[in-house]
Write a structure and sequence with these properties.
- This protein has 211 residues and is an all-alpha fold.
- The protein has 2 domains: 1-55, Arc Repressor Mutant, subunit A (Orthogonal Bundle); 61-199, Tetracycline Repressor, domain 2 (Orthogonal Bundle).
- The protein has 8 helices and no strands.
- It has helices at residues 8-29, 36-43, 47-53, 57-81, 86-118, 122-149, 157-177, 184-199.
- Helix 6 crosses helix 7.
- It is elongated, with a radius of gyration of 20 Å.
- The chain starts with 7 loop residues before the first helix and ends in a 12-residue tail after the last helix.
- The relative contact order is 0.09.
Length: 211
Amino acid sequence: MEQRSKSPGRGEETRLRLLDAAAECFAQGGYDATSLQEIVRRAGVAKGTLFYHFANKEQLFQALLERWMEELEGQLRQAINVAGSLPEGLARLDALAEEVCRDANGRFQLLLQFWAQAMRDPKVWAASIGYFHRFLNLFAGFIEKGVQEGFLRPVESRSTARVAIGLGMGLLLQVLLDTQQADWPAVLRYAMRLLLEGIQQEGPIETHGPG
C-alpha cells in the first residue's frame, strides 16, 4: 500500500515530482531499463525520499497509470454527466478531442509501456483492465441515455461502447505513428460522427471529412 506524506503540501509536491520524472524515464528508456537511481536523479531528490512515497518501481509505475487514467476518466465524466442531453454531451466530447490528441503525443510511449508490462505483471494487468471496464461502463451508460432520449436507435450499449473505445484507441496509435500528417483532433471528431451516423435514430448527420 502506498505511503502518504504527513505534510500534504511539500510531501505531495515531492511525490508529483517523482511521478513526472518516472514518466519521462519510462517513456524514454522503457520500464525494464529504467533504474530508480535514474528517476531520483531526474527528480532531484534522495533515493530514501522515493522509498518514503513508493515501496518499489512497480508501485511507482502503477501510480503513474492511476494518475493518467483518473485524469482522463474525470474529463470524460465531466463532459458526459454535465450534459443535459446526448447531443450536448457529444459537443463536450468534441471539445476534448484536441486535448486528448495533444496528451497522446507526450504520453502514448508511456501507455505502450503499460500495455507491455500488463502482459507480464498480473497487478498491472488488473489495474489496466479495471480502468478499461470503468470506461466501458461510462460509454455504455452514455449510449443508453441516448437510446432513452430517442436520439439513438435501440442498439446494444456495451458492444457499441466497445466499438467506440476501439476506434479511439486505434486513432491514438496513429497519432503516435503519424503525428505530422493529419489534423488529428479533426479526424477524431470526424470518426465520432461517422460512428454516430450508424446508430442515430433518424436522418444523416454532417460527415464531411477534415481534409
